[in-house]
Amino acid sequence: MTSDHDPATASVGSARYDLLVLANRLPVDRVTDPAGGDRWQRSPGGLVTALHPIMQQHAGAWIGWHGQPGPAPAPFTHDGIHLHPVELSEHDVDGYYEGQSNATIWPLYHDAVEQPVFDRGWRRSYHTVNERFAATAARLAAPGALVWVHDYHLQLVPGMLRRLRPDLRIGFFLHIPFPPVELFCQMPLRDEIMRGLLGADLVGFQHPHGTRNFQQLAVDLLGAKLTGDVIEHGEGTTTAATFPISIDVATQQRLADDPQVRTRATEIRRELGDPATLILGVDRLDYTKGIEHRLAAFGELLNEGRLDPAQTVMVQVAVPSRQRIDHYQALRERVERTVSRINGVHAGIGRLCVHYLHQSYDRAELAALYLAADVMAVTPLRDGMNLVAKEYVATRADGTGALVLSEFAGAAAELRQAWTVNPHDLDQLKDAIVAAAHATPDEQIARMQPMRAHLRRHDVNRWAADFLSRLDRPVVQGQAEAAA
Ligand code: ADP
Ligand code: G6P
To answer: Which domains, and CATH codes, for the chain?
Structure first.
């Protein structure tokens, strides 16, 4: 990825924008090389994958953190997007990002698959950083601008921004699941979060379950009134609706058609010893992704002789993620132990059964892996959407390939022809992997084609257009009246 601070675009520092996106992360992280030089690299995760192409097409700005503690760099332009970095001190990173966002809210919103940790200091830090984002947006928004706030790090921002700038249209989209009432109510910050979210005109969720949970909480906790999808509360009205996020299908297809990517896919299979079956997993190294369940299933299949270790290879790509948080360090140790146990028993000289890659890759290399894989295993215990599943389907231009998909990923509501599994049911998961590995090309194509057609109709541009047109609706009506 190219670019850097560009003196020609220094004026972005004083501009005001009709569209602002706020997310904890900017689309690029500043990384410092061992030699001491700084460069910008793509930030991890599905939020950036989805929003990056959208913001390249809109004349707006993106407010977020640049990935390092310490003073914020000056505003700059990268890949055609105006970026306004927000400062996080070491203390903010500890309390707001690693603490409240990723050790309290993240596990709580993902069915508490790890125990959420509650800490007063983290909550204060979360409040302070949310105020900083709201103040930055208030300063940069043009009169009547659309401000689109993203994800669980910034749930207090809509309410704070509403008080600072009542003229704005404010939208909020949650990229992760919104939990059932009983779980949400464990959180000491629950009233403040609900009031923060209800500061938005429109709140969007990945799945109808999240939308319903939110509506029910507004009624139960704050005594709001629900009519259709409109919530009437003390401060005004908020619409809550479902907008399943997607990927840039055209870009994914271009990658799939690229001769260099196709050659690389063949090369990958050769480097792996041309196995009869290549099973692939691609995830951030996160305990919500069910990586351990997938490895356990694969290990048992080899033990039982249902998969032949000489003919089957699993590649598990695990992007490093949130590495200073205890839950993540413990997961890494467990995964690495399991991988080495499977290889210890089943690998041969020069022949691994599981290739574990704790690294980040560029889009082309990932696309080559998707093209090379016979079976894509996506087995989260809970996931807002899971864009990897959609990327795999969009890459398989000839309709071959087999997707094993957890019913607990938001994507399962759309990719209905996948081999759907409950990852907690190890026998079912094993059966699904075997069935996917043995599927004939005709069966693969029969399942893949409807999923590909669905994605072509529901790509990320449509997701953004649906959300923004809904958020902008009163303005659009106003314009229509003025024109009449
Ligand atoms: P999450 O947002 O929880 O990480 P998603 O599956 O929705 O999960 O999105 C993950 C995104 O990160 C996808 O766009 C995927 O291509 C990308 N990604 C996954 N693994 C890697 C990797 N090793 N290197 C670079 N990008 C990756
Ligand atoms: C998920 C979250 C995003 C987050 C990403 C990567 O996709 O929904 O908000 O940016 O994970 O996590 P990180 O903690 O590295 O930003």
So the answer is: 9-245+463-483 (3.40.50.2000), 249-457 (3.40.50.2000)
